[in-house]
């Protein structure tokens, strides 16, 4: 009984890997554009009182990273870096304006935000908040639950 030579085995293995990777790249279904994404805005009115508003991000199907298949992409928002923030459970920030207009992405933990009219919203992992109440009374922020919160703040450049 004879055995194949190692170069033959390696060549066959490479053909199998390439064939598998090409098959894995084929989409199993037509790619559909994502529905809109809702995020919360905390803003100040002309009297300096803060409020919540819900806004939508719309997507378009774009060849964003060829040769990967098209993906749902929003319009570009000009930003100025990013900051990771972490606060322990129980942290409480009494009335304060946002230090700058910025998007906040909640990675873990849970925070409550209260605006001037007394409305309170709770934000957990995956939440996106645009804070732009940079003047006036501001808002209250409280880390609730038992877990430390990890957030990412992305300062937004003015249009």
Keywords:
159 residues; single chain; 12 strands; Jelly Rolls; mainly beta
Question: Can you walk me through this structure?
Answer:
The protein is mainly beta. It contains one helix and twelve strands, in the order αββββββββββββ.
User: Count of DSSP E strands?
Assistant: 12
- CATH classification, class level: Mainly Beta
The biggest beta sheet, please? 6 strands, mixed
Multimerization state:
single chain
Coarse structural class: mainly beta
Strand order of the largest sheet: 2-1-10-7-12-5
Poorly predicted regions are: 1-25
General shape: globular
CATH topology: Jelly Rolls
CATH superfamily: Jelly Rolls
Work out the strand percent. Answer: 35-45%
Compute the CA-based radius of gyration: 24 Å
List the helices and strands and how they pair.
Elements: H1 6-25, E1 37-44, E2 50-57, E3 60-62, E4 71-73, E5 83-87, E6 92-96, E7 102-108, E8 110-114, E9 120-123, E10 128-131, E11 139-144, E12 149-155
Parallel strand pairs: 1-10
Antiparallel strand pairs: 1-2, 3-4, 5-12, 6-11, 7-10, 7-12, 8-9, 8-11
What is this structure, in a nutshell?
By secondary structure, the chain is mostly beta strands. The chain is 13% helix and 41% strand. Strand 8 (110-114) and strand 9 (120-123) form a beta hairpin.
């Amino acid at each position: 009984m004879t055995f194949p030579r190692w170069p033959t085995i390696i060549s066959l293995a490479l053909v199998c890997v390439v064939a598998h990777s090409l098959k894995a790249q084929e989409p199993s279904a037509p790619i559909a554009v994502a529905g809109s994404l809702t995020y919360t805005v905390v803003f100040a009115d002309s009297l300096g009182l803060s409020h919540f508003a819900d806004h939508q991000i719309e997507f378009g199907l774009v060849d964003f990273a060829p040769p990967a298949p098209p993906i749902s992409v929003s319009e570009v928002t000009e930003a100025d870096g990013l900051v990771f923030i972490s606060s322990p459970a129980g942290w409480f920030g009494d009335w304060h304006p946002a230090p700058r207009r910025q998007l906040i992405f909640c990675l873990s933990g849970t925070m409550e935000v209260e605006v001037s009219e007394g409305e309170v919203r709770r934000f957990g992992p995956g939440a996106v908040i645009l804070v732009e109440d940079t003047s006036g009374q501001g808002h209250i922020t409280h880390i609730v639950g038992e877990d430390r919160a990890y957030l990412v703040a992305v300062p937004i450049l003015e249009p």
